[in-house]
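Lab notebook, design round three. We kept the backbone fixed and only want residue identities now. Task for the bench partner: fill in a sequence for the structure below.
Input structure tokens:
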């Protein structure tokens, strides 16, 4: 055989092999990576005229064993449609259909009377068995088409966090929560993947085989469904027991910012959001509302004083029960003095005069710089829409008074999520984290990406964070409800907060309206979980220790058992 002929065969063979390789790659792309999407498109060819089946990416929760649980997905069924042009006997059709599906009689006959129309929807979300029966009736002018819609299996579970989809003008997209924040990722474009097969191959092989579809995907969150459910039940109990206006909470890993649970009560059924009369229930107050937080600020003030070298846990001052600043009297919660007390007792007894003393020892500017370094003035960057920034103008005041009141959480306001980020600094050894809900993005191309954030800025020295942790453990062991709720085998660091509600449009505070808050983390010296709870305007109760201590301890016990956390002492 001539060498020229052999060379020709080799060249042809390589070309065939190359084409086969590309075709194989493309077939893999279609059948494996995008099999579901192309199957969906095939369905669309046999559904409603001039319409496409709704398509959107999923949002998943993730249980402790790594299994994915649908938080927001698609549900398939059927839609019942009439063609008024050919619907001859509307009365008979209504009688037959109304025995199978729920139809408003007036609406049916109104739509049946539109003789110039060829397409009127009369019932949605019909199951396959019912659809089959209707199809068997073979009613002229009545058709059954495939349908698909957004579905939230948990109903009320994490409703403010998941959000929902709906119309904004003519645009149908994510309206609230993760649905809105990750809308660009979750949306599915219908035409982008349908081009001439061979033309696409030979025009742009790299784009065809490797890059198509990377712009859309599913969101896997760090929310653990059992933990989320427990938290929401606990929030419901708090609101019921104390007739609160609102209760909310977050369980977060303070080491990396992953949120295990985030809940608000009252919640709503996301599948039937249109039934809500007050749209404010769709908002997430954890990221959108700012509050004066009260005494849970005190550990941040004390940690700043320790870190700056102004005080230690054993530093003492004379507590007269009140101090005078700028013709204003700052008093302890009960107006009583304790005489000479240590900084530990300042936290144990939550003394306003004590943290004002710490601030005076640091100096106003140093105190303000520490507070700002905790991020209380800033958005945290959490992956939820409409996050608000803090209101901390008092940290730039020329008067001592504003710094003193800020030291115990009055006169400055921030979102609960910003407060959680700041408190996480105490729990993780002194660094800022970015609270977040998404853990992984699964692209439609078959690729996936873990959601990660840069290591946070160091705010406190490690030893300062350890010292404030020891002090907060002492609060739980000796002071919180007289030490009766401490767990003998687990170290827990915690602090309560009771803040008066500022009058709207007026100076001063309501005498009978309070924000109760509670935060704590454990195991205290290597914290895996930080729990933050708050309840707004509980009735006929004064202090957060009364409303939130037991729900907090119940949550700690649940997490210990659920995650099988070993004792640390």
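Proposed sequence:
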């Amino acid at each position: 055989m001539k060498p020229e002929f052999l060379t020709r065969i080799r060249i042809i063979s390589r070309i065939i092999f190359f084409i086969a390789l590309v075709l194989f790659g493309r077939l893999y792309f279609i059948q494996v990576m995008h099999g579901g999407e192309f199957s969906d498109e095939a369905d669309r060819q046999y559904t409603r005229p001039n319409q496409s089946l709704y398509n959107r990416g999923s949002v998943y929760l993730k249980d402790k064993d790594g299994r994915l649980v649908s938080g927001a997905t698609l549900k398939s069924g059927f839609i019942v449609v009439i063609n008024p042009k050919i619907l001859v006997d509307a009365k008979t059709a209504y009688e037959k259909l109304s025995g199978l599906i729920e139809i408003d009689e007036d609406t049916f006959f109104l739509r049946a009377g539109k003789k110039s129309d060829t397409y009127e929807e009369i019932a949605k979300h019909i199951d396959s068995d019912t659809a089959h029966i209707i199809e068997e009736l073979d009613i002229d002018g009545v058709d059954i088409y495939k349908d698909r819609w957004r579905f939230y299996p948990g109903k009320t579970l994490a409703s403010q966090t998941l959000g929902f989809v709906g119309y904004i003008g003519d645009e149908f997209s994510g309206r609230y929560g993760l649905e809105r924040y990750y809308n660009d990722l979750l949306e599915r474009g219908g035409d982008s993947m349908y081009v001439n097969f061979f033309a696409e191959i030979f025009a742009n092989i790299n784009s065809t085989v490797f890059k198509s579809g990377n712009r859309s995907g599913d969101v896997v969150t760090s929310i653990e469904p059992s933990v989320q459910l427990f938290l929401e039940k606990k929030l419901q109990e708090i609101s019921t027991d104390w007739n609160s206006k609102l209760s909310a909470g977050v369980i977060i890993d303070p080491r990396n910012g992953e949120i295990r649970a985030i809940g608000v009560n009252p919640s709503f059924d996301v599948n039937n959001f249109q039934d809500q009369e007050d749209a404010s229930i769709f908002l997430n107050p954890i990221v959108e509302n700012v509050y004066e937080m009260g005494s849970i600020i005190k550990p941040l003030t004390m940690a700043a004083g320790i870190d700056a070298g102004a005080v230690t846990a054993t530093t003492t001052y004379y507590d007269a029960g009140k101090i005078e600043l700028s013709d204003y009297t700052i008093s302890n919660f009960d107006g009583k003095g304790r005489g000479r007390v240590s900084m530990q007792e300042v936290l144990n007894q939550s003394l306003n005069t004590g943290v004002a003393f710490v601030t005076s020892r640091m100096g106003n500017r140093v105190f303000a710089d520490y507070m700002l370094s905790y991020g209380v003035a800033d958005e945290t960057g959490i992956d939820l829409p409409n996050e608000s920034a803090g209101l901390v103008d008092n940290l730039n005041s020329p008067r001592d008074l504003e710094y003193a009141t800020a030291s115990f959480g009055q006169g400055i306001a921030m979102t609960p999520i910003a407060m959680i980020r700041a408190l996480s600094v105490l729990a993780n050894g002194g660094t800022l984290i970015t609270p977040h809900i998404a853990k992984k993005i699964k692209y439609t191309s078959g690729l996936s990406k873990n959601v990660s954030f840069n290591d946070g800025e160091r705010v406190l020295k490690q030893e300062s964070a350890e010292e404030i942790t020891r002090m907060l453990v002492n609060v739980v062991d000796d002071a919180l409800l007289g030490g009766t709720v401490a767990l003998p085998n687990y170290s827990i660091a915690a602090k309560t907060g009771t803040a008066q509600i500022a009058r709207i449009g007026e100076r001063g505070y309501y005498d009978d309206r309070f924000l109760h808050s509670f935060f704590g983390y454990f195991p205290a010296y290597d914290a895996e979980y930080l729990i933050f709870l708050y309840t707004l305007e509980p009735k006929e109760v004064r202090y957060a220790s009364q409303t939130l201590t037991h729900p907090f301890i119940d949550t700690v016990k649940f997490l210990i058992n659920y995650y099988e956390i070993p004792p640390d002492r």
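Keep this in mind before ordering anything: The first strand starts at residue 59 and ends at 62.
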